[in-house]
Amino acid sequence: MNRILVLIAVLALSATAEAQQSRDGKWEFGLTLGNLSGETVTGLNGSFIDSASTTAYGLSVGYNFSKRLALTGEILWGTPNYTASLVPENAPGTSIDINHEMDLFNYGIKGTFNLLEGPVTPFIEAGLGWTYFDSNVADSAPVTGCWWDPFWGYVCDTFYSTYSKTQEYYGAAGGLRWDLNNAMSLKGSYGMQEIKIDNAAEDLSLEVWRLEVLWRF
After folding, report:
1. 7's torsion region: left (phi>0), alpha (psi -120 to 50) or beta?
2. Which of 60, 110, 116, 117 would bridge 74 by S-S if both were Cys, CB 3.0 to 4.6 A apart?
3. Cβ neighbours of residue 28 under 8 Å, at least 6 residues apart?
């Protein structure tokens, strides 16, 4: 029994030493599963938008300058449901309510500081970037076009543009990283994201939960 325990300890120490050497100077590709909290944003003259929490998905590519410092670019997207209350200019005291689903995309870059050099370490992150909102509500009359397709023959389809906007954001997060082996890691984190909203009483604040699977190469 003692020999088995010693063997397990040796293997664990070996795996730890391998993982410690695996992060420094390596690139990482990641898949993210997360959650974006719902929030209400108040606009001018009583208008507002109330969004629901939603599952988010993401991709990331980063580089570890050392065992503690890393820089990562990421994309995170979700499709939250929302209710918008619009106030007509010529009919104060009334509103037009919209219940729909928006598309939300984050494009950003973040820096990571691992508090420890070992395979299991807490970390903190800070980042900034842009958030693209698409209301999926048409902002003009639809346009129909027809063309000849090499596969489908003569095709006609209808297109329309929507109300959309791109805004800056910044955020911070903290969490725990576990290097499983020389090639794979897990990260879990919780953070806040502040999105600048023009013509609103205050910026949009979102809670962001993330679970990331990383592959080093």
Report:
1. alpha
2. 60
3. 60, 61, 62, 63, 64, 70, 72, 185, 214, 215, 216, 217
Question: Among candidates 109, 206, 207, 104, which has minimal Cα distance to 165?
Answer: 104
Q: CA 54, CA 84: separation in Å to the nearest integer?
A: 17
Q: Is 35:55 a contact under the CB 8 Å cutoff? A: yes
What angle (nearest 5°) sits at the alpha carbon of residue 102, between those of residues 96 and 103? 155
CA distance linking residue 176 with residue 186, whole number of Å: 8
Tokens of 6: 């010693």
Q: What is the pTM of this model?
A: 0.82
C-beta separation of 130 from 167 below 8 A:
yes
| Contact (CB, 8 A) for 81 and 100 | yes
Distance CA 131, CA 96 (A): 25
Closest CA relative to residue 197, chosen from 209, 206, 185, 186? 206
What is the dotted CATH code of the domain comprising 2-135+164-216? 2.40.160.20
What are 126's two structure tokens? Answer: 């800070």
